[in-house]
Each structure stands twice: as C-alpha cells, then as structure tokens.
Amino acid sequence: MAPTKDELERGTAAQDEENLETSFPEGGLRAWAAVAGSFLVQFCGFGRAFWVRAIQTFLTLYSRYTNAFGVYQDFYVRHYLTTSTSSAISSVLNPPPRWIGSVSAFLIFAGGLLSGRLYDRGYFYPLIWGGSFLCTLSLFMLSLCKPDQYYQIFLAQALGVGLGAGIMYVPSIAVISHYFQRRRTLAMCIPTSGSCLGAVVHAIMLNNTLHDDHLGFGSAVRMSAGLVGGLLLIACLLMHPRLPPPQTHLPLRKSISRFVRDVPCMLTVGAYYFPLFYLQLEAVKHGIDEHVAFYTLVILNASGFFGRLLPGFLPNRLGVIDIATLSSAVVAVFILCLLALSKTMVGVLVFSVLCGFFGGMFFTTMPPIIAVLTPNIEGLGLRIGIGFAIVGLGGLVGPPIEGALLTSRFIWWRPTLFSGVRSVT
User: Fold this and answer.
1) Does 11 map to a domain?
2) Is residue 20 in some structural domain?
3) Major facilitator superfamily (MFS) profile domain: from which residue to which, for each copy (predicted)?
4) Domain membership flag for residue 244
5) What is the DSSP string of 107-159?
6) pLDDT tens-digit readout, 103-119
7) Domain of 409: which CATH number?
8) Using alpha carbons only, what angle is made at residue 101 by residues 64 and 152, rounded to the nearest 5 degrees?
9) How many angstroms separate the Cα of 383 from the Cα of each of 83, 117, 238, 269, 410?
10) pTM for the structure as a whole
11) Cα–Cα distance between 43 and 415 in angstroms, integer?
12) For residue 21, what pLDDT is reported?
C-alpha cells in the first residue's frame, strides 16, 4: 500500500532533521578551538569591564574606601581625575569617573547591534581582528593619558575599549553555532564563564600592580594591555567560521518585532547588576571589614564561573528556558534577603557564593535561549546583537536608578526591592 501524504511529510521532516544534525560536527579540533577563542574574548572583554564598573560604582558612592578598592578608580579619583566630580550615582548629569566604566560596559553590549548585522553578512574576520586591535591599542593609549585630562581617559577606556570589545563579542559567540547544534548549550556556556574568570584575574592583578610603588599607573596599565593583546591574538588565530554567509538576510525591522517577546528575559539580566555593583558598599556600611568586602566581588565572580558552566552539563530534557526561570527565581529570593544577609560576615559570604552561582547560571543561558528561539542560524548574529543591546541599556540606566533610590542616606530596602522585582519579570 502506498504511503499517505501525512506519512510522506513526516518522513521528509525526519530526514531533513537528520541531515541538519549530521551537518554540524558537534566537536573536533576546529570546533573546540573556536570555543577556546571565544572564551578568551570574554576573559579580556567582559571580565575586565565588570570588575572596573563594579569598583567604580562603589567608590563613587563611598570614596572613603578608595584604598581598599583601588584598581582604576583609586588613581582616577586621587591622582588622574582630581578635578572631576565624584558625586553620588543619582547625579546622572555630571561626568564623574564612574561613567567611564558605565559607558564602556554599555558599548560592549550595544556594539552587538552593528557587529551582529555585519557578522551575518560575512565580516567575521574584520570584526574579530579589528576589535582586538582597537581594544589593545586603546589600553596602551590609556597608559599614556595625562592626569586631570578626563576626555583622554574617556576616549581611551570608555569609547576605545568599549567599542573594541563590543565589536568582538557577538561574532565570537555566534561563530560557535557553525559547529554545534545538539551540544550548542554546552558550547556557548563555556565561553561565557570566561567573563567571571577574567573579572577575578584582572581584579587581583590590577589591584596589586596599580599600588606598586615601582610600577605606577602607566606601567601597570601597559602590563594589562600586553596580557589582553596576547590573549586576543591567540583568540583570533583559534576562531574560524565554517559556513559561508547566507544569501538572504532577515530585515532589521522584522528581527526586532520578533524579538519583542524576549525583552523581559533580557531586562531581567540587568537585575543581577545590583549585587555585582553594590554588595561591597552594603557590606561595609553594615560594619563588615573592608578587606573582606573587597573579596566579596571576587567570590561572587568565582562562584559565577562554576554557575555558568553547569547548564551546559545538565541533561537536554532540562531546557535552557527552564534553567533560566529557576535560576532567576533563586537570585530574586537572595536579592530580597540581602537586607538581612549583609549584616554579618557569614551572611555576606553565603550570599556571594550562592547568588554568584545562580546569577552566573542565569546569565549564561541568555545566548542559548536566543539560539533556541532563532529558527535558523542565518540571523543569529543580529538577534544576539539585539538581545545584548537591550541588556546594555538596562545595565546603563539600572544602576543610576538604584543609586537614586538608595540616596545619600543609604536606604537599602528601596534598590533591593527594585532589583528583586526585576529579577522575576
């Protein structure tokens, strides 16, 4: 008996799915080399930005502890930008040094709008090599900036490093989709963990070199630039696209309209900025030793490193959307409990470990969620770029809003409630 039309359609669909899976290597030297290269990009880009942004926000609000949280802001406030205001975070119209880190972090996210579009059109190599060169050059230029020249540091660190890292980020993540489909979640989770490891390494390195009397600001920044430049060169040599650029391109307006349903998930990521930027300040204000408070961010990122790896090793039946929902709920609970936990050293350390772990787990699911919701990989670069641009916007305006809610009287329940509610949107 001849097969029915429905049976033929089911057989054709099954055959197409089988052919699609076999077209992805799901491993191999070139595939894992691309993952390693992407990891190094996150290590040099996001890892650096997250640490600088966090300590700048802390020191802007509580400049008494600049010695404990030196890194860049210590030199900006006390040596390099002494004529610039270091006002409270609610003064969004003033140009305090903290906006250097704010704009840099925003451009890393928002740069995906441009780089994602260009990646889909086949400009992978110009984006990766150009972004690496701009990022490294800007760091070396930063070491030559003169004291009290705000515009020089803003151009080098905020615009130069921000644009360079932003140009690289989306292509370095999207290229992984050329090699993996069934194991795409694992392959994308590994690189995102690089930002946490980078935050830990850069924090310890910069805090020690910037305060070394024999090195000084310029030498310390050049050492950091050399490390970043060398790692980015290795990353460029490791990453190569496997598939040719698509012949047809999804219109930008259509991509944005399809992405509207994903906006709440992207904005929820911004809620994690509150403990990332304010945990040390809240701990110190509640009587925790400042030297212990310094390492809360290191612990937060260290535990986040393992949290970002875990989703890739969970069974496939636990979808990334379910993992994101669970982890965001746990983060919301911990943020809302921060008022009580921040009053003791044990509470702060417990919060740093657990919130860092689940926060990292939630953050790392974002690229795989976008990949799952993208019907084909031809438009993946643009969709990742749109998603991270939304995250960048939330990160740019979220901390100032939280700072305005906090006020100079340090009313902690207001920003805590605001951030906790955002975590469950």
Assistant:
1) no
2) no
3) 250-425
4) yes
5) HHHHTHHHHHHHHHTT-HHHHHHHHHHHHHHHHHHHTTPPTT-HHHHIIIIII
6) 777 888 888 888 888 88
7) 1.20.1250.20
8) 100
9) 42, 9, 24, 16, 39
10) 0.75
11) 29
12) 45
